[in-house]
Amino acid sequence: MKFVKLFLVNFLLYACFASAAVASEKESLFSSFESKKQFAEDVSTMILKAWKPWQDGVLITDVKVEGSQGIFEVGDMRGDTLTKKALLKKFDRKDKSQDYIMCVRAVASALENGMRKWQKGYENRQIQFPQGANCVITLSPCQNIPVTLDSGESSGDGALEENALYNFMLYRSPNNDESTLLVLKTAAKGISEAVKKWKASCSIVGLVAQGGIGPSPAPMGSGPGPVRGAKANNGKLIGTYIDKELLYSTMMKGFSE
Q1: Which residues pair with 139 in a beta bridge?
Q2: How far lies 193's CA from each of 59, 160, 189, 198, 249, in Å?
Q3: In this structure, are residues 105 and 46 in contact, taking their beta carbons and an 8 Å threshold?
Q4: Would you call the peptide bond into 224 cis, given omega within 30 degrees of 0 as the criterion?
Q5: pLDDT digit string (tens) for 218-257?
Q6: What is the pLDDT of residues 200-210, one digit of tens each?
């Protein structure tokens, strides 16, 4: 009888130890520096690879032109948004645990949410078409003076700030141990800083404005003068893509602080 009791006690102790070991193993997903480094590389590579086709596919259309001013309103930036599906398609899942994949998916979900809100809410009143201020009858085709994206603003800008990105990732995290929260926090910071740099280095280019109504030429009219009701189309986002090295280095710096 004593032997049976001793056996049961030892079995229960072993079961508790095994359970604690499993929990510890789960919580230490990013306990090593190498695992954090791998995550930074996977995330930064995934984002860069998905960013290029998204940016190249953006089309800017139906921008109003009044005189020399282009009026880029909400909804004028067309094309697909940067999706979680497109991001994860660029992620190599080979030999990755389910929890690791869930962390990458959390980053992709946060970036998808932020970029969708930014793209859908973007507007810019700094786009100029100098020819529009001095024409007759109508506006002949002319291109805009390139301006960087940070010359405009979006109602979705806040969704790309570090805290907003982190909070979005947090509720999609497989667990809340310290090391997992750290890699998500550094990913949020890296994305936020890289997006800000991208906005300052990527420009709205190639908008072709034409049409509308300009004043009749003198002596019968008052022209040349400002056009009214012209439209600009076929604009693109030209410049650098998101800076992978900045994203990666920001994450790596966060791991050592």
Answers
A1: 211
A2: 24, 9, 6, 9, 11
A3: no
A4: yes
A5: 887 787 999 999 999 999 999 999 999 999 999 999 998 7
A6: 999 999 999 99
